[in-house]
Amino acid sequence: MSKIVHRYRDDHTLFVLGCCNGLLCFWLSARIICVWNPITNEYRRLPNPPVVYSHPGQCLSGFGYVPSLDDYKLVLLEFINVDDGNNLIRVYSYTLRCNEWELIRVVDDMFDSPFPDNPLYNYFCPQSGVILPNSKSHWVARQNYKTRDCNLILAFDLVTDTFNTVKVPEELLLQSGEPSMKRFLYCLSNIDDKLCIAAHGIRLGDCTDSLQVWKLERYGDSSSWNKFLWINGIESLKSLCSFLTSYMSRDGLTYLMYSNTKTGIYSFGGELCAEYLLFTVPYVESLISPFMTAEKGLFS
To answer: What is the domain count for the chain?
Structure first.
């Protein structure tokens, strides 16, 4: 582990929009979005996004490489409150090669929703989308404001700019309806190029939480969800939005997790092995430059 100092210092929180092939995309205040390679220390400040709000808290984001386009693409889904009490969803896309933003869709979530029963994003925190090799970005979602827990996964195709949904494991939906269950908090991750969902279960009158992680073995087949981790009786976790299941060791014996009091490396038995105070994203070193044009290829 090494410390790297970046040039953009700001009093506001830095929010990571995504990380792919050694390129880190992050949002600072005043609509400043940058793509940075920490290894080469190359920065690229993107044109200001044409969003209404200047804070990423109203957005879902997805950043990744699209092989069929030979390009890196950033997508922002901005949720806008309008006077009549409804919400508008504006979808913006940006590519490194073209270096410009495009408003690709405006959705009135009451009359023109591309989602079944108007699913909305999980408002507990802004989400950085989980992108799979199929060039789809994924976020946890819920079908309406009255739904207590998120109950589906929203997917956006970075190639066709279209939406679809993925069902969460049926067992999670059944557990969330149990009288003793206060709520579930969810987050997504990519493990072995497969979509995974982690569920943080909070029970009424119980000071301990549970954690389970499911992997979708065959994309598009909701019956192929496989539960490969389940821990009961661990101390209260911080919001699962801070937990990324990507951080499991190669031997499968330890994982990285945030809690209310202690953040660090835990064993599958729930014991704290090493304590850290950090915010994390999975990162793989590369020499890829954030600068590319229509004339230059990805690796020029």
So the answer is: 2
